[in-house]
Write a structure and sequence with these properties.
CATH topology of the domain at 1-26 and 33-158: Serine Threonine Protein Phosphatase 5, Tetratricopeptide repeat
Structural class: mainly alpha
CATH superfamily of the domain at 1-26 and 33-158: Tetratricopeptide repeat domain
CATH architecture of the domain at 1-26 and 33-158: Alpha Horseshoe
CATH class of the domain at 1-26 and 33-158: Mainly Alpha
Radius of gyration: 37 Å
Strand content: under 5%
């Protein structure tokens, strides 16, 4: 979250710092008088700043300041101008130091003092001194309630957020949004981030709906909205949002498509899940590996589309280095009484090996052989199943049945 907020803050920093970048304009009518010499020097400095000759402006101010009376209004003006130049050079640490020195003179008139304090709070934010920013800006807001605009509220919200004091940040960003005729997108994003941190997903949901209404083509908001619905256990709504996002072409990656597949399955819509995955496997946006073919087989099976499930599971089995999927395929064949297909799949499973329960495979093989009247082979399969503790009892029952049957097949 720190990176998320800090990047958005710096975008607006320079425009705010420009409030202190015109030294002669900053001299008010009620300010203490300054010498014609200093006024001339500050005017030249201002011209250099206007021409973006920042190093020359800085060097000129650094030469002037030692010649000024300590803790005088003139010294304060020059230090404030130097802070402005440093800020324009993106040297915020030096800008902060110069502005601190300026305020330490206590020579600025009240209005200029308050403006400098506001700028110092901004610089503390830029240099990641967030507690100092709060300590500077919070008293400023309390002293200047009628002059607190949205930008200042956003600054304080950012500062509290960086300190992980999310509840204290919320009122400031919400106030900024409420006061603005057209709140900035980044303000909504900060408000959203705060609710995420506080796990207040209902409030996050409302903000995301506003963002989508204003920025309907931004994929991230659609995906976040679906995620928040899931956080609230609103899986049907999450599916609706994800489905719309898919139709809009926002779901492009394999993980995004599989997430939609999982939502279909969770919402007991296996046919739609299977159709989706079939299309995406064909388009190769989802990799044709054993795991994904197995997912497709599961979806088709749940949708009672057994022929499609068998095709998918055959592909999954062929790509898997163990025999477990062939055994799963055999069970599908058994359900449909396709005994010869089941025998073939079980033999492939045993050949590949790596089965969790090899005895179960021999039991299933014996049953399938029995149904195809291959009694000798069936007996051999049950004898192998008898060697495994878990299937020993079942195998013996089958063997006894075969031996005592008066109506062998």
């Amino acid at each position: 979250m720190k990176k998320y907020i800090h990047q958005r803050f710096k975008i607006g920093l320079i425009s705010l710092i420009l409030l202190i970048s015109t030294p002669t304009q900053a001299i008010e009518e009620k300010s203490p008088p300054i010498s014609p010499w200093l006024y001339k020097q500050l005017t030249k400095t201002e011209e250099l700043i206007s021409n973006q000759a920042y190093p020359q402006a800085r060097q000129k101010l650094e030469k002037i300041i030692p010649e000024l009376q300590d803790k005088s209004y003139e010294q304060a003006l020059a230090l404030r101008s130097l802070a402005s130049v440093y800020a324009l050079e993106n040297n915020y640490r030096q800008a902060t130091k110069s502005l601190e020195q300026c305020l330490a003179t206590q020579a600025l008139p009240e209005q200029q003092q308050q403006q400098a304090l506001l700028n110092l709070g901004q610089l503390y934010m830029a240099t990641e001194h967030y507690q100092k920013a709060v300590n500077t800006l919070q008293p400023w807001v309390e002293k200047n309630p009628t002059h607190t605009d949205q930008q200042v509220s956003v600054l304080l919200a950012n500062a509290y957020a960086q300190l992980k004091q999310y509840r204290k940040a919320l009122p400031y960003i919400e106030q900024a949004i409420k006061q603005a005729k057209k709140p900035q997108e980044s303000w909504f994003q900060l408000n959203l981030a705060l609710h995420y941190e506080l796990e207040n997903y209902s409030a996050a949901l409302a903000i995301l709906k506003k963002l989508i209404a204003s920025y309907p083509d931004k994929k991230a908001y659609w995906l976040q909205l679906a995620t928040v619905h899931q956080q609230l256990n609103q899986f049907a709504q999450a599916l609706t949002v994800q489905g719309l996002a898919y139709k809009k072409g926002y779901l492009q990656t394999e993980s995004e498509i599989l997430q939609l597949f999982n939502l279909y399955m969770y919402n007991k819509q296996p046919y739609q899940a299977a159709n989706l995955l079939s299309q995406e496997l064909a388009s190769q946006r989802v990799k044709k590996n054993s795991e994904h073919w197995q997912l497709l087989a599961s979806a088709w099976s749940n949708a009672r589309e057994y022929k499609q499930a068998v095709i998918a599971l055959e592909k999954a089995s062929a790509l898997n280095d163990k025999g477990e999927l062939y055994l799963q395929l055999a069970r599908l064949h058994v359900e449909q009484e396709l005994w010869q297909n089941a025998i073939s799949a079980i033999n492939k499973a045993l050949q590949k090996g790596g089965l969790k329960q090899t005895g179960d495979a021999y039991i299933l093989l014996g049953m399938s052989l029995y149904e195809t009247e291959q009694l000798s082979a069936a007996k051999s399969a049950f004898e192998k199943a008898r060697q495994y503790q878990k299937t020993k009892k079942s195998a013996e029952q089958w063997l006894n049945y075969l031996e005592n049957s008066n109506n062998p097949r």
